[in-house]
Amino acid sequence: MSDAYDLDAELTRAAAALKHATKVTVLTGAGVSAESGVPTFRASDGLWEGHRVEDVATPMAFEANPELVWRFYNGRRVNVAKVSPNPGHLALVELENRYGDGFAIATQNVDGLHQRAGSKNVFEVHGSLRRTRCVNCEKVEDRGLDDLGNRPLCDHCGGFLRPDIVWFNEPLPTGVWRRATCAAEECDVFLVIGTSAVVYPAAGLIHMSKRARSPGATVIECNLDRTAASEQADIGLYGPSGVTLPRLVALL
Ligand code: OAD
Question: Is the distance from the beta carbon of residue 128 to the nearest atom of ligand 1 less than 6 Å?
Answer without folding.
Answer: no
